[in-house]
DNA sequence: TTAGGGTTAG
């Protein structure tokens, strides 16, 4: 029994007290809804919005929509709270078009739009990667004074921008806010710190952290976790320790998320023992592992080639009554099968998952798609992609990159370009990562001119090349023996404030070595050493080859000499 | 006394 009628002695009428905490699943919610609509007098609109919020939290977005329609059919009063929950549901279903179609309902019912309406819509637009549309809406709100943007508005826009690679714009908005009346709060600062870390601008992130302290907006657990994540991913373990201690000294205690971040970082670097040490520390501090901890551990073991151990962890999870989720399946079982090139087993498991109560998600599809391409089963990959589309699955950037990369890898340039052109026309997925795949694919298939053309177009369409884009172009030029162009590109990237990384230098060195330009190779190697970058396997192989063909190479490259001595 | 913002998986 979820609804209890009680007499409210002050108002003298029957009110409904609903215990929404008892609503555990979709059935409970629908039962409660049915009871509510039959109660006389009707429960308040507040009760209905609480129920809708509960459904939203349980991710039953389409249920929100259908119950909302039923309310309308029954002529039950609605309000702005309910409408924004409906808009949010559509947005979370990646149907921002339907979300917009809710706007006329405001007008019909005389409910004014407010800043929440637009914040929710903007988040939905960003979720579909329509950066330009979102920014346009933001500007329109400000320009036409439709509503006053608040901290939430800025947070939404800045998060959307940073997640699509526009860290610089995020930073300018921060500075703009500091001048204006809506001052940046802890959410805003945390978004910028995270953006800077994802952009590998750690010094800037640390500067901002200090700036926060000075401005009286002290960093919290999220800010520190973001920074620690960035530092883990870039292998700066000393700094990880520093900030870990710093936060504890400030009485900000690492939570399960912080620990998961560190454990994940350690496994990704193959530091299994350190990861286990951190887990012990975590247990000692009384922080309970969650499902993500287990998934991280399993993923970590798989990465270190200890797949059997991961399956143990899998079993122990079940023993501890922690239900494996779709990520557990994705990370260890499906991904494991795919890595072992046992795609049929992966497919079979994929079919079984839904019977076990989990639902394959986009990552599941992407993993299998990638697995199929990996073993060259292009026809099956296409078939699987079609299945994904017809099942109404959301394609993410990874899906598209996997498809394009797969096509290019098997020299299916026309298929790749036709898919890319279709995507570009829709202009929904303008992300540098997607362009990187296309530019790389074209370069590797001997279509440097076309690749260059797309590269040049990037700035016109507002997509910023990143270090990988430049490296891909440099590699493209090197493959064609156009070493001057490769060097020009290196200069260009530095002029544009994009610093070359170890991959860039390895690519350059390989290009010059292949053309036997030893003295220039030596120059780049010295630069590499100065920046603390090391050779990768391919570079080392080429070097060995060059030396065996011509031993004097060794003397021409002093840098190499000292390294070999070491 | 009901709506909208930040950190971890491929």
TrEMBL record:
Example GO molecular function: mRNA binding
Pfam family, one: PPR_2
Cell inner membrane found in the keyword field: no
The PPR repeat ranges on this chain: 114-148, 150-184, 185-219, 220-254, 255-289, 290-324, 326-360, 361-395, 396-426, 431-465, 466-500, 501-535
GO cellular component, one term: chloroplast
Highest taxon of the lineage: Eukaryota
Keywords, sorted A to Z: Repeat
Protein name per its UniProtKB record: Uncharacterized protein
Organism: Anisodus tanguticus
